[in-house]
Amino acid sequence: MKKKTYSIFGAGAAGLYTAWRLLNGETENEAAKAKQLVSGDILELYDWGQYNFNDENPGTRAAGARVCTWHYQDDKSKSYLELGGMRYSEWNGDNDAMSQGHRLVTTVIKDLHLDQYSVPFNESTNPLYCLRTKNMYLNDITSLNPAPYYVKNYGNTDSPDNGFNIVENLAVTATTGPQTRAQWCDFYQNGKITAELAETSVFQKGDLLKNIGYWNLMFDQLGSEGYGYTADGNGYTSNVINWNAAVAFQANNEFTPGTEYKTLTTGYSSMFNALFDAIVKLAKQKGVSFEYHPNTRLHSILQIKGVIHYALATRENPNKKSASRTTDAAWLAMPRNAIDLVAQATRYVDHEGLDVLNHEKVQLYLESAVLQPSYKVGMFFDQPWWTAGAVTPPPYPAPITSYEVTTNVLKQLGEQGFPAQYLKKIGADNSILETPFAATADLIKAVELCILERLTVTQEQQLLSTAERNTIGPSVTDMPIRQVVYFGDNALNQNGEKVYGILASYDDEQFTSFWEELEYGKDTVEKVPFSDNYQPLIGPRKAPEVMVKMLRQQLAALHFGPSSDYSFVPEPLETRYMDWSLPPFNAGYHAYAAHYNVCDVQQKIRKPSQLIFEADADIFIVGEAYSNDQAWVEGAYCTAESVLNDFFGIKPLIDKSNYPFICPCC
């Protein structure tokens, strides 16, 4: 029997997941067994960078492509920050259609025995804002203290996120519209404006939302000031660009009350270290030759006489072909920009064979993904100067303390002698269980109304101390730092040096260029073309003094007031940045453009030869960019899983009857 070679290009989430499932997946039927990897077969994994997977495969930066955990002094026992993707939405394991959460990520974390490190990644219910030089907390925004915007219908007396609700109510309300994952897929294709709108509105009842740009719709409904308030106060500029309005409705509905976000105390990158180790172990057990090739990229790919031919290039000379090989199946586990680089190699030359990536229909579908540049800057300090408990507390401390009753909290309270009848009632009250409270008085009041009794002083102390949680904020500004996320002292070794971390700037879209010009300092000229600056592959880069001072200046305005001097913020111990607008990613995440059938894109782009008449090539595209969960690791896993299910006969990792990995064609 001829030995097979499977080649995966990209060692991020989708690439690692594909390799893992090719090795541990079970086939649906006898016909699929011929495609399964067996002893003597070859599994290739190409990595344009060199991720630090393990001692045998060290690298320049943490694993995970656009996930990148950075530890203080690069010591994994010390405090860390996430300079890329940083969390997941936990799935409770129920298979009903209404259950929320990232089902594949949750399952992978459990299968790799990482759930023991899974902890809440809670957001504050009373975040701090600094908008148009006014510092305020969400709970302070009222008719007597409005936000500094001239929003119609007194919209500036409510949360800036209310703008999303106003627009979404044009088609989706609390009682109407899609509720399940499958229903949202149908909405992407058929969702329409259902509300009666004034004749003065540009858009009207019955208009298909997939054919409307979200910025266009928001501006039409909210006006200039209403749009500005929502755009500034939401923190993510990427959420309010002119992307597919139907998809935007769902994406901006992601941060709903009750959603439980989690992360790993070992850093989010550790999931990919564990995946790599599992791949190595499984390959050895099965007798499959696993070949990992760092510092190597896919240069070009063609199908010639039914055989997939591909060329490679090295990190040292990434634009020139260094080697040519063949494979039985190829996975392009990479984002849109990296795929386009591969296509460019054969776009302007004559060649034989089928050039899948450069076919007009394939190019059309590839362009459905909008590149969204993003930028993150992390800082470590020897003190949590942003907290109310600091030696010199700022006038506007970070709102990082909250209270949340979970099943684990109820268990701890029971062990402390809290009345069993109280615990039973609290556990059955969905308005309390897993609901964050910003104020102690609000939690105590809610519990007392539930049990219809007064808590004793001792019981109050037990409840508050057990339910107290640190949140990550964030604080939101209209300054170039945009969002500030507070990681604090999260070191695995709590007996060591106390170091406190913050994501001092989490920004995207046009704000990335503000920081890019500071990367060079004040006395440096350009030396490397933008197209050759592979900083994201190398790892977090030390910020120059001018960037540090600019960060301190804006952090001071956020926490000490708009006229505060930068010196109010102490000198950091370390500052590093990740510029995700740089190659090869050229984006931190992606979004779908308007005027596309998103469901058809998701189905066809996985195996792009499906878009070419009478063509069939085992070249696959997987990853977050063309998924049903853009900007999330879940999207990368779901596209990879769907390819293996539909084209290789591998049984789904979980029951997908109520959880389509990608949208079916409507």
UniProtKB/TrEMBL annotation:
This is Monoamine oxidase. The lineage of its organism: Bacteria, Pseudomonadati, Bacteroidota, Sphingobacteriia, Sphingobacteriales.
